[in-house]
Amino acid sequence: MTNGQSVKAQTLVGLMSACMVAANVQAGVHNVKLDTSPDRQRTGLSVDMKRIGTVAPRSVYDIGSCGKWSVGCEILDRDFADFKEYCEFYEPLGIRSVRLQSGWAKTERVRGVYDFKWLDGLVDFFHARGFEIMIEPGYCNPIYDCGGAKGGWDLGTGFPRTEEGLAAWDRYVTKLVDRYRDRVSAWSMWNEASNLWDRKGRPEYAEPEESARFCNRTAKLVLSRQPEARIAIFTLGSDASKDPKGRFLERALPAIPKEDLARYTWIIVHGYCYRPEDAQPGIDRIRALIAEFAPNLKIRQGEQGCPSEGIVSFALPYAPWSEISQAKWFMRRMLFDCGNGIQSHVYTMSDFVHEGVYVNSINNKGLIRGNLDRETIGVKRSYYAVQNVVSVFDDTVNLSGRPAFTNFDWTIRFNEYAKPDGRPVLAFWCDKEPGGRWFHDNPPGGGRPGDSFETRPTVFFSTAKPMEHPVWVDLFSGRIYELPASDVQGSRSGTMYVNVPVYDSPCLLTERSVVIDDVKPPTVTVEEMVRKAKSDISTYDAGPKVKRQGVMNGSAARQKGLDI
Description:
Layout: H1 3-26, E1 50-54, E2 69-72, H2 90-93, E3 97-101, H3 104-107, H4 117-128, E4 132-136, H5 163-180, E5 186-188, H6 208-225, E6 230-235, H7 238-242, H8 247-252, H9 258-261, E7 266-269, H10 280-293, E8 298-301, H11 323-339, E9 344-346, E10 352-355, E11 360-363, E12 368-370, E13 376-379, H12 381-392, E14 398-399, E15 405-406, E16 412-418, E17 424-430, E18 456-462, E19 470-474, E20 479-482, E21 488-491, E22 494-502, E23 507-511, H13 512-517, H14 526-537, H15 554-559
Parallel strand pairs: 2-3, 2-9, 3-4, 4-5, 5-6, 6-7, 7-8
Antiparallel strand pairs: 1-20, 10-11, 12-13, 14-16, 15-18, 16-17, 17-23, 18-22, 19-20, 19-23, 21-22
Helix pairs in contact: 5-6, 11-12
């Protein structure tokens, strides 16, 4: 049997096992537990090296105050998921920053009566565990004449425009900030306001300048109540984030006074791409516009997700996604952002059922698998893959100030990081087709993560001193392998690391001490975290559900150009 046949056979066995697990789950077994064993991640990987360990998962209590990552806890403002079903998976993941959406329509169901009980439970849960919380105020509220599309409580339906709607919005934002300013440090303005520019001929249509003025109005109101707050002045939708010409920001940024822009912290990008690295031209253009109009602003990636099965609605449809390709995609987007010096967001923790204004379907971009009854039925491979990235790339691992590595294979992307004492951490993966074809945003095209675990050898040259105990790490599985001494070849000009396995999933070349010797035992066990999370959330009250209006099926949503 060839290596490729072996990979296919192992993949088939894995799929059969997954089907058996799914059958048990559907029989009513919903007691889903995290696997913390060294072989927690199923893989068809086979490399001719000695395995010496596995990346140890690090929870939020062991990771330090890492500012590289954030994770999603969105869509609860619209009752698309049940937080009780997956609350226990946040702490063990190791990401300390979380994004919430505030839900005006869920909070103010009767004019002038604000019921924040549902949001109190979420904020208190994360604050008690030391998370940095970012809240995104929105969407509209159908009890007021806001001037947008009917049923404006969901994505893509427009912000308040009428005198009545704006006055009600101001009151709501004031109540929101006053209530949480002692626990929430960051706020982002109106999810994907840039997408409204694509809605020409519809009530929610807005030019970039109008969106800018609305976002600035809201941001100034937040700062008037919480002067020390950090603000994301724009949360750009996918098209505006990927646009290499930056047409939305070219018009939106000049519409805000420079003295106001100077008070803000971020511009948030989304920018879904089938091949994560295709986001680069958009990032470069946004960075240039920031340098011109508001050098104080930073780019922050605030929403990037990938399906775990093929979908026809939401972002990244019509491609043969799987749990394997999803896990690779998440890691590549995280390390792409990290290599660009951008905080990276994992969207999102759990699958959810989007019963919205324009779409009614399950969105399977979660790290945790959910069903149509909003129950948790499994942990996806992407959860463990993301956990591996987070466990290695804490605040002590940063882009190297003195890069020393070179690779001459144009199909390989790599970034060089270092510990404070100089020990290297080289992250790399194949992000283009070795055959030379390279298609942008084409689902079947070159560079999109696939399902194969077949590797090929590559060579890295380093001008730095040779590593003492070099290891190769497969971040998908977390498995750590000893690089054979024969594959480390020194000369007067430097060191060659040869026969280094590479494939379309991120791998590392680093010192053994970085991923094994320096790792400390966990401060809190997973069992303790899960038990306390379930206990703390047992009395959580999600409150009455948002009134559903104007639900549209997934096909119609795609025709309207909705990303998510």
